Amino acid sequence: MPAILKSVNLTKRFPGVIANEDVNFELEQGEVHCLFGENGAGKSTLSSCLFGFYHPEEGHIEFDGKPVRFRSPRDAIHMGIGMVHQHFVLVADFTVLANIIVGTHEQGWRLGLPEARARIEKLCAEYGIELELDAYVRDLAVGQQQWVEILKALYLEARVLILDEPTAVLTPAESERLFRIVDHMCKLGLSIILISHKIAEVMQADRVTVLRKGKVVDTVRPADVTPQELTRMMVGRDVELRVARDTAETRATDTVSVLIVEGLSYRDGLGKTALDDINLTIGEGEILGLAGVSGNGQKELFEALSGVLIPQVGRITLTGEEIKGLPSRHYMDRGVGLVPDDRFREGLIPEFNIRENMILGWQRHDDYTNGIFLDHKHIGTVADGLIDEFQIVAPSGATPVNHLSGGNAQKVILAREFVHSNKLLLANQPTRGLDLGVIEYVYKQIIAKRDEGYAVLLASEELEDLLNLSDRIAVISSGRITGIVDPDTTTIEEIGLLMAGSTDGVAA
Amino acid sequence: MSELFSEAILISILASTVRIMTPILFAAIGELVTQRAGIWNMGVEGTMLTGAFTAYIVASSTGSVWLAVWAAMASGALMGLLTAFMTATMRVDHFISGLGINLLAGGLTLYWFRIYIKGRPQPTFDGFDSVAIPGLSAIPWLGEILFTQRLLTYLAFAMVPVIWFLLYRTRWGLELRCLGENPKALDIKGINIVRRQYLAVMIGSVMTGLGGGFLMLGFSDRFLADITAGRGWLAVVAIIAGNWMPRGVLAAVLVFALLESIATHVQVLSLNVPHQIFLALPYLASILLLMGLRRKTNQPVKLGIPYFR
């Protein structure tokens, strides 16, 4: 098979980092080629170079055997390269049709809607995509928005399609459908670059190029290697992916319920029902996993349980005391810790230094104050101790947290919440975007807290992780708990169905 | 109160409403284009003031109102270029760049004005005359209210459907609205964003300059310091109150102008209310709208947020 798209000794630098170094990558006609690597390994940089969004400093790109120079994505698009970005680039207030055609015409003032509609309908039929073209994107589910993105590329007559972490927002069933259509696309002559860090997806590709720290480790066929070998190539060492849930004996049926949630419902400011009759209990020394496609009420649930928002209906009882309606500070005082999903926006103040972030929310606490002043000396001692204890890599406690990597920033949040809470730990996506080594660390810390007797609510998009860590798994869909399952007896398929909103055949 | 319903006064109020609408409508409908492209030009007041002042200088020294109109638009273009440079090229915070424009315009016009009139009586000029549209102006009531106005007033009203068409029925308009909602969606298709931002700012600023010019040439015969007296701000408020839709903006401008017209007729109407109350009402109404009485806002998502790749 001839190579359709190729990078030769490609190097891309950003101030202070080499994002891609001497990368040789080759996409063959009609194959699904996976780019596999950890965060910051250079996958997205490489694809952005191939798409003309970035310009490599050294090396060059070949398309159809000829060297090409992309000055902008427009040049790449002209060649027939399409990209589906991980964070969708859509206009919520436009229709599907308008989103597909905006910026595609070169000249003339007309919108040309009828012609565009006919072409898109033909594409949908050809590839088996179902989409209402006159729907507004804001009304579409995330999974459907992905199809709009793919259609945008196909509409521009892409021959090469770059999919950046396409399954991050999909249910298992939706992912399966995506891969079916991707296969179909290859049969129709498209070539696909799939960026992923999920081993199960990588194993489905025709070939895999593993990147680590900006360099190509190797290009292999999944059939020739084991998942363990691939993971080792990605991380550079062996990783114990399964943090054992060993001390399950603490989970007796008569454990004390730390948190009881009854009939909790919340309508947001726009009148949308974000939480719908949620009933949950979490016992002492128990991890309750929360599975669901993001945007189905997880955020609201975590905020409700930490007092950030106050649901209109229902009760929240913490160790026998009804606390719904109290300000969030009272939740903190009673030992509730929250690890929010968006760590830099909600968990930290990026411009503040590590010490300040370590006491964020507890700054009024007697320990940290001298009258109306902050006791900087004591804060410094506590923070520096935590930096050591949680192995945070930073020049000093005075370093602003926006200078830290995602993993170290997350450790700052964990340290703060672990030290100040003592009953309930709410962790929403605590490992999102982190490297495997840090993920392992975070999970071990959470397990340790569980063993100390904390009740833990843990949400993750990685079902495998939930299955490994949780004592029970609650599944949330459209703000409702569609089922609570036992990780020892359930299957990914069952959870997938519950994530999609089905409530059939559920046993708690 | 019976005078309120006297026909002559009512016609006078409505006819002057239409005239008062003109400069605000030019600015509001033009700035709507700018805002739809995501740029919150807070320098509308200053741009309008510059347009009015330029029109005054040119009209009073050459005697040509049409030359003055062109000069007002050119001065608007200049302010627009400055705004676009700050917001699109330098990516300055839009509120700061607007603050700069307003302070610059206020200071510069006053300074220049003092030099211009130094040691002589203030020069005046002959402004626009009304142009009665043959046939239509003979219609009772409507003829006097709508069809015996200045030429530029007709143009201002004509701009509303023109801008609507541009925004919603052309490829260019779709791309422009996309800029305000999600500029990256254009960027990844390799479309030059900065160039389109310049264009959007220029359209708004030229029309604002034109509005300032009309304010001078259609209402007065001489310049006064701060002659715009908040009409530029009112244009911005009209966009908010009109929920970023051309017809909404038109309606908001109509209401604002009507209130101002009533305010100027307060004495004739012998209403026992300070006329400032009417002038303040548009702002109060907008505050209420902003406080969320509106169900769905059409405010462009990226309005006022500089775009960084």
UniProtKB/TrEMBL annotation, chain A:
InterPro entries the record matches: AAA+_ATPase (IPR003593), ABC_carbohydrate_import_ATPase (IPR050107), ABC_transporter-like_ATP-bd (IPR003439), ABC_transporter-like_CS (IPR017871), P-loop_NTPase (IPR027417)
EC class of the enzyme, as a word: hydrolase
EC numbers, comma separated: 3.6.3.17
Source organism superkingdom: Bacteria
Keywords on record: ATP-binding, Hydrolase, Nucleotide-binding, Repeat, Sugar transport, Transport
One Pfam family named in its UniProt record: ABC_tran
GO terms assigned for molecular function: ATP binding; ATP hydrolysis activity
Domain ABC transporter: 5-238, 259-503
Signal peptide start-end: none
PANTHER family registered for this protein in UniProt: CARBOHYDRATE TRANSPORT ATP-BINDING PROTEIN MG119-RELATED (PTHR43790), GALACTOFURANOSE TRANSPORTER ATP-BINDING PROTEIN YTFR (PTHR43790:SF9)
Protein name: Galactose/methyl galactoside import ATP-binding protein MglA
Natural source organism: Roseovarius aestuarii
UniProtKB/TrEMBL annotation, chain B:
Location in or out of the cell: Cell membrane
One Gene Ontology MF term: transmembrane transporter activity
Superkingdom assignment: Bacteria
GO cellular component entries: plasma membrane
Chain segments annotated as transmembrane: 6-27, 39-59, 65-88, 95-113, 151-168, 198-217, 223-242, 249-269, 275-293
KW Membrane (keyword) present: yes
Bilayer topology term: Multi-pass membrane protein
Keywords recorded for this protein, A-Z: Cell membrane, Membrane, Transmembrane, Transmembrane helix
Protein name stated in the entry: Galactoside transport system permease protein MglC
